[in-house]
Structure formats: C-alpha cells, structure tokens
Design brief:
D-Maltodextrin-Binding Protein, domain 2, 36% helix, alpha/beta, 12 helices, 4-stranded mixed β-sheet, single chain
C-alpha cells in the first residue's frame, strides 16, 4: 500500500474520482454531491485540539484571549510575547469543531479568515509542518496526529473566564484529555475524561469524522483493507491509537459487494436518490459500493 501525501478532503476526492488513488480518507462529512457514486464508510472520530509549539510558554489560554488574538487585538502570553496563530482554510472541519465551543469563538474565527491576518494552511500535513517549524505558533490539529507522528507539540488548555466566550468562569478544558476545575497550573492526566458536570458543554469534545471513500470499481484487495478497518480488530486498533471508532462494520462492507454497483448506478442517475445516499452515509452502516486500497488525505 502506498500512502499519498496529505491532499485535503476535496483534493482526495478529486484524486479518487480521477483514479489516482483507491481510498480517500476524508476528515469532514461529505455533501450529497460529493458522496454520489461513492462508498462512504464512517471509520472513526478524532479529537481536535489547539496545539502549541515548543516555544509557547504557557500550557493554557483563556478563550477570551484566543478570541482577541483571532480578531487582531493585543493578546500576549504570560512572558509578554505576542500570541501567534496558524489557521486552516474556510470550511475546515477542525476549525468548525473548535468553533462549536461558543458563538463568539465562531465569529472570531470567521473574522480572522476573512481578514487573512494570520497564515492560512490548506492541508493537515501543512499545518503539522508549520507548527513544528514555527514553534511559537498555535493551530488546530488532531490530538491523535500529535501522538502518532510523535510531534513536538502539546494540546493547549482552553480556559473559561469572566469575559466569557462560551465556558463558565474557572472551567478549564484541556482539549483531548478532559475537563477540570482545578487551580490554575494543575495539569490534567492524559487519561482523564470529562466530568459528568462538564461533559454536556456544547461542542465538547471538539471532534471531526474520519471517513473512507471509495469508487464502485474497487479491487478485492481494497475491499479487504476497508473491511479490516471496519472490523472488530480494526476498531480495537483505532481505540488503541486514541480514536473513537465509527459505525461502519466489516459485515456491512462485505454485504455491499454484490449490490454496490447497482446501488451506485441508481444514485448517479437519480438526484434524489444520490442526496438520500449522501445523508445515509453520514448516519453510518449504509454503505453504497465497494472499497479500495491506496490512501490519500
């Protein structure tokens, strides 16, 4: 198997339809138009964090300070240095996940992107490289990516304060690890989960889907790969890597082999059916077609 460099979801789907790759790993839900004629398997969910480079002096940031930095207002770390941000392109699922923490934060991200006051990256790989090379910057990235690639980055704690941008004053959200109301400076253990009192906070934990998209002419080898990824063993592997397994199943993948091409043909020729198929794939388990072998994200 050859794993292509990061292409982004849109680029991965173009490469998939052009036959350049066999499997596109997508990190957002697909529109009905994008999903039409493809098999889309709900593989997993990843946790989105605001990652800090090695030279960022603090381990957490108040959400009101983050909002100020996004809007280009004066915002500094505890040592007086300026907070520097790296952004993803408009519509990026990681940014959207963080934006769900509060309407004010969502508005601030929109303002930052429209003004282009901070550098904008267009793929996950570009964000990884930029965060590592520009070690005083912060940006949105999957927590699992930090661990898998052994990146010199750390999740930055998000803190509620009296200025209130979504979290109650004193609540500390360590994205990807848990929530704590401990005194400032206390760390949250890696395996700590959200408390019952805080787990209902809107948008917590910030997450995005990981989907496997394939064409209807998938090879047997490709189908075997996706079936394994959706199997019990595959899901155990995903759990061990910190992901939340999705709703796809190996049995569901296998069941589509005989009927997939017929279903895809109908979806391609009937717009209403294509739209329904796109929505169905987002709910999981209903997979339309075969699956494939080379991966691009």
């Amino acid at each position: 198997m050859t794993i292509a460099p990061s292409l982004g979801t849109a680029g991965g789907l173009r490469a998939l339809r052009d036959g350049a790759i066999d499997v596109a790993v997508c990190s957002r839900d697909l529109t009905p138009t994008e999903a039409a004629g493809l098999t889309v398997a709900q593989l997993a969910k990843s946790t989105v964090v605001l990652a800090a480079g090695t030279e960022v002096p603090d381990r957490e940031i108040p959400l009101s300070t983050l909002e100020a930095a996004l809007r280009g207002m004066p915002a500094t770390w505890s040592d007086g240095t300026r907070i520097e941000l790296l952004l993803r392109e408009p519509g990026d699922s990681g940014t959207l996940a963080l934006s769900q923490l509060s309407p004010a934060l969502r508005s601030a991200f929109d303002d930052a992107l429209s003004s282009r006051r901070w550098p904008v990256l267009h793929t996950d790989q570009a964000m990884e490289l930029a965060l590592v090379s520009r070690s005083r910057c912060i940006g949105a990235i999957d927590r699992q990516t930090i661990s898998l690639h052994d990146l010199p980055l750390r999740p930055l704690g998000l803190v509620g304060d009296p200025a209130g941008v979504g979290l109650p004053a004193g609540v500390r959200l360590f994205a990807g690890t848990g929530l704590s109301a401990d005194a400032p400076g206390h760390d949250v253990p890696r395996d700590a989960g959200p408390s019952a009192a805080h787990s209902a906070l809107p948008g917590y934990p910030p997450s995005r889907p990981l989907l496997l998209a394939t064409r209807p002419d998938a090879s047997n080898e490709a189908m075997d790969f996706v079936a394994y990824a959706c199997s019990s063993d595959g899901k155990q592997l995903l759990l061990s890597l910190g992901y939340v397994p999705g709703s796809c199943t190996a049995a569901g993948i296998r069941a589509t082999e005989a009927t997939g091409e017929e279903q895809v043909t109908k979806a391609n020729t009937d717009p209403m059916r294509a739209g329904a198929a796109g929505k169905q794939s987002q709910r999981g388990n209903s997979l339309r077609g075969k699956t494939t072998a080379g991966v691009g994200r």
